[in-house]
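REQUEST ID: PR-0412
SUBMITTED BY: lab tech R.K.
PRIORITY: routine
TASK: structure prediction, single protein chain
INPUT:
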Amino acid sequence: MIVTRFAPSPTGRLHLGNLRAALFNWALARRAGGRFLLRMDDTDPERSRPEFAEAIREDLRWLGLTWDAEIRQSERLPLHQAAAERLKASGRLYPCWETPDELALRRRAQAAAGRPPVYDRAALRLSEAEKAALAAERAPHWRFRLEHRRVEWDDGVLGPSGIEAGSLSDPVLIREDGLILYTLASVVDDAECGITDVVRGADHVANTAVQIQLFAALGAAAPRFAHHALLTDPAGEPFSKRAEALSLAALREAEIEPLALLSLLARLGSADPVEPRASLEEIAAGFDPSRFGGAPTRLDPAELPAFSARTLRGLPFAAVRDRVAALGLDPDEAEAAWGLLAPNLDRLSDLRVWSRILREGPDPQASEALSDEDRAYLAEAVRLLPERPWDETSWARWTEACKAATGRKGAALYRPLRVLLTGRRSGPEMAALMPRLRGPAPHAPERRGPRG
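STATUS: complete
OUTPUT:
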């Protein structure tokens, strides 16, 4: 069985880049009938916040990306510590006492000599007496001793991949204060939870070489890895937690459709066309990591509202039934209203506006957009308006009568009539809309007096 996970750090709100990783892991599991886990990587007590963890859950629920179990790394520290002790006992985890300033000085010296800034393993050359003297001064941090060999894997996106581990610094797994860092905690939890597939950003490729060696050192099988291209803005910059305007919370506030975001990110950067999907099941069924390329994928947030509107307009009523009910529409008329109004909606809340127009007529302020010529025209149009009840022929009969009486045609004929009945210059097909209007009988707007 495929088991995937999404492992955000609850140190901020989710953004579009995070969503790409969450969606890919969710879709891979759901397509195969597997399990999708939510893991809160909350081992950093200084930055992790419960309110951010709840915000992450809220964002995923809004998107419909349900999870089968939730894990909190902070509750699994004994497992992480036990793994660290095993690595120490095997000689793969060794203590180091360099300060940040000392390490920075070494890196500058390496750069000046034209060498890569890789940790030189000076701590492994210390005598026992030197170690004891340093230990008396300060606590050590602990590094994982990499085997200097090429680490290879078959990447689900990038294909055959590999890293020379000798080109990497031995990573720090435990800080001076005893805090176990992400690299070790993630491997321990992935192994213990039976994670079979990890889909994440291409910025983690080097981490993969380290983690594959860590899995082996702990006697566990490594999962399959797939590294998708990073999602960038139009300027080529990665999406960040600091870009609050692009957080999922902000997009939800802007009424971007969840299915629009998921439809877009599930295909953007792949060989498949980006099209609105009608359901989460359809998104999962068509997902294939191997269809994606390795180049950075650009997304222009300015294009989201139009794609969201396109997605919304194509949804069947069953997909929005509960949300429409929450807007307070008459349940007996909601489905018919959706069929009529959906093709003209930009946001679902527009349905509430149109529902009010159907019940009460246009906003009185609508006449402010009319010219004096249009006001004079509408005085004649009101006189020619067919009597109620209106049916599907009423609009055609009315416009023909207005055309014959005034000589108007095209937009000059139709648009003022639409404004008179709805207060809007555009909207649903009037022949279908007119029989559903239940507001007071329209009256000709007053002509404005001379200025001055």
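NOTES: The chain has a mean pLDDT of 92.
REVIEWED BY: pending
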